[in-house]
Amino acid sequence: MQEAEPPLSISETSFHSTPPTIQTGFRYNLVCGSFVGVNHHDQSTLLGCSLMKNEEIESFKWLFQSWLRCMGGNAPKGFLTDQCASMKRALEACMPTTVHRWCIWHIMKKIPSKLNGYKGHADIEQEMSQVVWNSQSKDSFDRNWNDFLLNFGLGDNKWLSDLYEDRHIWVPIYLDHHFWAGMRSTQRSESMHSFFNKYITRNSSLIQFVKQYDNCLGSREQAERESDAADFHTVIPCATKSCIEAQFQDAYTHAKFREVQAQFRGKANCITRLKNSALGYSVYEVGEQVSSSIFNKFVVTYDSVAAEVKCHCLLFESRGILCRHALSVLSFEQVSQVSPRYILERWSKKVKRRHTHIKSSHDEPLMEPRSKRFDQLVFRSQNICEFASESEELTAILHRAYDNVMAEMEALKAKRKGTSSLSHEDANLESVNELQSPPRIRTRGRPKNRLGSKLEKQIANATKKKKTKVLSEVKVMFFKFVAIEFIFLVNSLGNVCMLYFR
User: Fold this and answer.
1) Which segments carry the region annotation Disordered (predicted)?
2) For the stretch 20-45, what's the b/e string if a residue is b when 16 or more beta carbons lie within 10 angstroms of its beta carbon?
3) In Å, what is the CA distance from 168 to each residue of 4, 87, 89, 144, 150?
């Protein structure tokens, strides 16, 4: 059984053990996309967001290439999106080794509208759900799908034909042998958009967007710290006398331990039967009672020499949690302790998340090529700081080294003093002759009529009256401030603004 990866540090490209999801919404007449992952408390984590002028392939290519640069060139192992053809083609071009998954929730939600014209559409929807969720192998899915089409006369349905052609990127049995941290839909991204709405409105300025984005990150980090504190100061009692359950109680965060306990409770509905055994390798059939008359059967193998258990439901491979079928076999084999490979550091309460100690992307101007040099220095110094913080002696050594390096850099800077002209920011500001708003685009889901902001109404009224009076000093200062900050964003981030935290 393949072990899921532990969470990686920033210097090793963070969150790559958790596939990010991306969902697009709209702000400022621009496409707003968010990257969302899962932390060790099973909480949604905002990895980054972007503002793009459209949803064309080239825009998504730019987005994913920018993501890769922020991640040190390392692509995530998995990516979960909605059914966007442009996103699919851009991912194939930019991250060819990344496993792409479509949101199954969006697909299943379309069944009533796509098949409503057929007789017995309710039965069709139920049978299709059974085929999608209960097929235990790729071959069985293919057989069940063909039988489903034949029984309901759906062989000529183009929507179903297209879904079958793309089955490798949405059907669970084709994807669950990869680690997804339990994610099968983009609902986490959609929930993050709703959470973001607490901080941002359509009338917010771009500079407010940047500041409120940081407030949003701070809120998520605070929730994570509170969960960390709860894990260390409280204990969830075991539901059984199992030593295996006690192992997970000691290691896992409360959120993940509750998932483990759910599997232990489900074990009560399982009946284990040994099919064959040879040289310490046993094959079991586990029947799980799901209703008064229905039993689902699962094949579980156990290797007593390697202390390895594997179930065909693939729960451990996809979520990193041992399933009730595997636990039932371990109980049958009288195993009192599971191998450490099944206790993932990914869900450990002792994991240290170093990203919370790194400044937000807008704390300092993102300038080229200075931002590149800054990123390179951060990547290289992160491990040194982590190592030095282990003791006072190591910290003192690093402080002395820093002092020596700082003195040398200040001496070099003083020697070159007076040779430079305008700063990068000043040069950019002086090179801009006219302040322009972002281009308007046609967006999906945007209301046809939008209520204008108070400022827009004031400008409109002033235009109608042909401005017989000049603006007051306060208004002049206000507009200068907005112009300078907007110019800064446009020139620092380009035509499209992309924000990456940590």
Assistant:
1) 423-451
2) bbbbbbbbbbbbbbbbbbbbbbbebb
3) 21, 16, 15, 15, 21
Tokens describing residue 464: 């109608």
For residue 345, count other CB atoms closer than 10 A to its CB. Answer: 17
pLDDT per residue as tens digits for the range 199-208: 777 677 777 7
Contact 22, 31 (CB under 8 A): no
pLDDT band at 447 (very low <50, low <70, confident <90, very high): very low
C-beta neighbour count of 326 within 10 angstroms: 28
Between CA 27 and CA 32, with CA 29 as vertex, the angle to 5 degrees is 40
Q: Please tell me what DSSP assigns to residue 154.
A: -
Joined together, the tokens standing for residue 90 give 């851009």
Query: If DSSP codes are grouped into helix, strand and coil, which group holds residue 460?
Result: helix
- Long-range CB contacts for residues 202-208, cutoff 8 Å, separation at least 24: 202/27, 202/28, 202/450, 203/453, 204/27, 205/482, 205/485, 205/486, 206/28, 206/485, 206/486, 206/489, 206/497, 207/482, 207/485, 207/486, 207/489
Q: Rounded to an integer, what is the distance from CA 50 to the centroid of its chain?
A: 14
Structural contact between residues 349 and 251, judged by C-beta atoms closer than 8 angstroms: yes
Give yes or no for a contact between 298 and 207, defined as CB atoms under 8 angstroms apart.
Answer: no
The helix/strand/coil state of 356 is helix
Each residue's pLDDT tens digit, 87-121? 999 999 999 999 999 999 889 989 988 988 888 88
Work out the widest C-alpha separation in the chain, in whole angstroms.
Answer: 96
Q: List the domain boundaries for the chain.
A: 10-103+170-225, 243-347, 364-415
- Tens digits of per-residue pLDDT, 375-415? 778 777 878 888 888 899 999 999 999 899 999 998 888 88
Q: Which parts of 223-335 are beta strand (E)?
A: 270-278, 281-289, 295-303, 308-311
Contacts of residue 249, Cβ cutoff 8 Å, sequence gap at least 6: 235, 236, 238, 257
- Provide the pairing of β-strand 78-81 with 99-102: parallel
Task: Return d(Cα 200, Cα 23) in angstroms, integer.
Answer: 17
CA distances from 215 to 114, 134, 488, 490 (A): 41, 43, 20, 22
Identify the H or E element spanning 49. strand 44-52
Backbone torsions φ then ψ of 24, nearest 5 degrees? -110, 140
The candidate with the shortest Cα–Cα distance to 232, out of 61, 94, 41, 73, is 41
Tokens encoding 208: 């407010």
Whether residue 102 contacts residue 168, with contact meaning beta carbons closer than 8 Å, is answered with no
Q: Which two tokens stand for residue 193?
A: 């958009």
- DSSP SS3 for 261: helix
Specify the DSSP element, H or E, that contains 48. Answer: strand 44-52
- Spatial CA neighbour of 313 closest among 303, 300, 302: 300
Q: Specify the CATH number of the domain 10-103+170-225.
A: 3.30.420.10
How do residues 78-90 score in pLDDT, each as one tens digit?
998 888 889 999 9
